[in-house]
Amino acid sequence: MNQTEFIVATAVILFVVFLLGWFTHWAIARLSRVTKAELGELESMAQALHEAEEARDDALDHLAQRERELTNAMTQTEAELAAAMDGLREARAEAQDLRSRLER
Question: What SS3 state is found at 104?
Answer without folding.
Answer: coil
